[in-house]
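Reproducibility note. Readers wishing to regenerate the assembly model reported in the main text can use the exact inputs given here. Chain order matters: entities are listed in the order in which they were concatenated for prediction.
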Amino acid sequence: MMNRNKLLLIEGDSTEGKLILEALVDPRASSFDVDWVRLLSDGLKRLGERKTGLVLLDLCLPDSEGIATFEKVFAAAPHIPIVVLSRLNDESTANESLKRGAYDYLLKDHLDRYTLTRALRHVIERKGVEDVLFNEKEHAQVTLNSIGDAVLSMDISGNVTYINRVGETMTGWSRQEAVGRPLAEVFQIIDGTTRKPARNPLEEAILENQVIGLNPTCVLIRRDGLELAIEDSTAPVRDRFGQVTGAVIVFRDVSASRAMTIKMSHLAQHDSLTDLPNRVLLTDRLTQAISLARRTSEQLVVLFLDLDHFKNINDSLGHAIGDKLLQSVAQRLVACARHSDTVSRQGGDEFVVLLPQIGRAADAAVLAQKMITALAAPHTIAGNELRINASIGISRYPNDGQDAESLLKSADTAMYYAKKKGRNNFQFFKADMATRAAARQSLEGLLGRALERHEFVLHYQPKVDLQTGEITGIEALLRWLQPDRGPIPPLQFVPIAEESGLIVPIGRWVLREACTQLRAWLEVGLRRVSVAVNLSGVEFRAKHFLEGVRTILEETRLEPRFLEFELTESVLMNHVEGSVSRLQALKALGVQLTVDDFGTGYSSLSYLRRFPIDALKLDQFFIHHITADPKEAAIISAVIDMGKKLKQRVIAEGVETREQRNFLQVHGCGEGQGYYFSHPMAAEECAKLLRTGIAKTVSD
Ligand code: C2E
Ligand code: MG
Ligand code: MG
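Running the prediction on these inputs yields the following structure tokens for the assembly.
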């Protein structure tokens, strides 16, 4: 440690040296410990040897002159304060030495003890304060370099004045290079979402004179181009008078935590199976797209897509395969869509596609067809070649809904119609679909209570032997007498009952009612004919259907040969293999089987041969065209022949006129049924008919 009172006097002139020495050595006060040398060379030597606190230097020495004298001493002891001794006529050199680092100068012409000691004491104090400040600065530097955050400061004109070590690493600029450069060069930031340059936070802090937080998506571009997500705060720097002199910014790398936040929000907005946007994100985007379309008066389109019979795949091959199929479907849908479209999964086998900008409705149709075609190609999953189709409903803004919810609902309704139209197609939403859907919904509600409220009855319609005119059988037809709406025909409510599954309990009621009725007729000795009950596909495939039939036959004690089931061709042709085994099981009970509405479902002869059926019932359509169209007539006579060859009974339904009856007779059709012979009627009337026989004979 240097002794502040140890003074080195370098003075060539003996007289002046003595005077100074006397002035400094004051026996009354704590005086200086002065070491006097006359030559510069000696002075420099002493500086190396002793711990000097202060140098008093005459620039005019025997071995050195002028400013050079100062330079040499300063170079030898840059940390020791130097006070230069000068004369009035050489004050300019003294001034020059001040610029180069001298603490002060004294004019020999005005020197006295008081001024000399006062000046020297002042220098010593100043040096002491400077040392403290220097130490504090050192300390601050060390602190700033060891904290984990980057620190960067700039002056009021926007140039970098300081950057710490973390700041150097994060910006890629060393302190030497950065200091003095404009901030924007060293601290390049952009908005992570828009990729536009972010507003300079330092300038903002200076302008607003307060602490400013950075934009939460701020990204720092390092000198080498690497991007870092950062978080920061910036504060203005004020001097002791409160004037803003610059600003300091503290920032840290938050790439990892920002990546985590992004991942979390991705999970909340995407479907985990397919990684497509989920219902939440779709609704969000749809709402945004609607407000944009509203402003620009443009159209937008929503496609609601539902896979056909996806449940079968899940049920038969398991959920793991089902999931893979959904992933494959998702990929194909995305491949069909444009980048700006949103393909989302709503859950289950439902997908919604949002087309935010669409020129013409026809473009939506093109995309819907493209998707249907893309999905139809086989999906190879775990060695299985799976086939799946889809039904699509399309709704448009603004016509079919003003908000996200109603647009989705309209598209869903249209999708439902696509299903009705035989699936694997697309339908645009139409206004009347909504009213029909609403009517259907209310009907479904009423249907659910119809059984327990005893609103169903059976009507019976006879079948007649076309040669003899005798009744060969009775068909039971369901009637719903809805108290508020009057009679509702089966074509309106049976499909709804099928879809809701209500057809199973209703069908069981029909079967029990028909069997009970026939049993009663047989017991009172009426004509021994069979009763035919219509069966829908849902009932035919229901789990406990066969046991149900067996139980009802036992309960009503009806011989099975008096019971006949009518199944439509389309029911049988759907899953032929399953149909064959089910029909065989039914047949084994001893009941009779008829194909209803024959000629509408394109059955092939080879299938017909495999089904254990007793009768073909020709669809009304052919019968109604018999006389008008010779081509239809030809087909009918061919079908009659075919039925006969298969040793099946052929029954014509919907016979309304004598001409039709004649044609059927001539072409050898066995039986007929229709308004010409008798309308369907209530049980009591039918009983009368069974007793008396049909009034209209087969020979008039
Ligand atoms: P379906 O089994 O083909 O029944 C024949 C339909 O034609 C009956 O209509 C009958 O009233 C009507 N019909 C009879 N003769 C003529 C005629 O000469 N001309 C015309 N134009 N129509 C005639 P309905 O009773 O309205 O039944 C319609 C369909 O509803 C039935 O067609 C059947 O598929 C279904 N259905 C009726 N009852 C039941 C039932 O209990 N269960 C099930 N699953 N379906 C039933
Ligand atoms: Mg029928
Ligand atoms: Mg029919």
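We highlight two features of this model. The chain has a mean pLDDT of 88. The pocket of C2E (ligand 1) is lined by residues 461, 477-478, 489-491, 494, 507, 510, 534-536, 566, 596-597, 620, 653-656, 674-675, 680 (CB under 6 Å).
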